[in-house]
Amino acid sequence: MKKNWPLWEVFVRSKNGLEHRHFGSLHAADAEMALENARDVYTRRNEGVSIWVVESKNITASNPEHNGELFEPAQDKVYRHPTFYDLPDEIKHM
Amino acid sequence: MKTNLYKYILLIADNSLILGQRLGELCGHGPNLETDIACTNISLDLFGQTRSYYQYAAKLKGDNSTEDDVAFLRKEQDYLNVLLVEQPNTDFAYIMARQFLFDVYHLLFLNELQKSHDVTLSAIAVKSIKEVSYHQRFSSDWIKRLGDGTSESHQKTQNAINDLWTYTDELFHQTDADKKMIIEGIGVDVTKLKESYYKRVVEVLQEATLEVPESKWFQKGGKQGIHTEHLGFILSDLQYMQRTFPNMTW
Prior knowledge:
The complex is a heterodimer.
Chain A: E1 7-13, E2 21-27, H1 31-42, E3 50-55, H2 67-71
Antiparallel strand pairs in A: 1-2, 1-3
Chain B: H1 3-24, H2 33-61, H3 67-72, H4 92-113, H5 119-147, H6 151-164, H7 176-183, H8 194-207, H9 230-238, H10 240-244
Helix pairs in contact in B: 1-2, 1-7, 2-5, 4-5, 4-6, 4-8
């Protein structure tokens, strides 16, 4: 056996109506085992109602070295937030 | 005291206690983090079930008995678990084969026990079925993976199945307590589970490309309190705290 099984990322929906959130990662030989392991590692204290697993190698991630070009241009564009309207006092929860 | 009912509860509960203890030995020693947690998780399910049964047994026994007395303060011959569940954690293939051979029985048994006229036993069965359905799924998946895996995992799993096969027939032996409880509508007729059991086991073994052992010679004794040499060692671990510090609690 190879020393390590492939790595999987685990997403758990904590309650119906909420979105799946990244919970962590684990090792498993196949998708079925990844689901069972995720169930035991991440939901044994009643944390979830639904689990997604995806093999980590299938995730395309942004490169931290490119943070400058990817994210910094957004920093000085405050007008992209809808904060320039006067709201009447009666409107709550905005 | 309702002696037969008391004994019948032990016949059910001791299987969960001893198998739970065996799996608990793996805590921190599993092959990897994920299977370690999975095995101890199953162990905790079984201990939870055992507690419900022993609380009931302690109530029947009276004399201010507690679940701990029933669990920890009996002699080896008073434990009525089947021989299968006390077999050692030889390797991961043995652990999964033992689990699989027990889980298939356990699920069939609980499905019948939930129809029991005894409301407590029926309620415990209903609650346990979900847990045990998962156990069976987990261990069946592993048998298929190991059997149909590498030539080494195949061989090790075949060895484990061959060695443990001799303990399977005992699951379907009727004790006197069994017979009396069936008459009262409380107990399960285990002889009727035999056919479905071997059908399911053979299905999984075939899918796992494993051979079904041909041996027709079977071990028995656990249900009468006659155990293999392994149970004494398990009990010396299990009972140590209560024997050394009587009445200790957490």
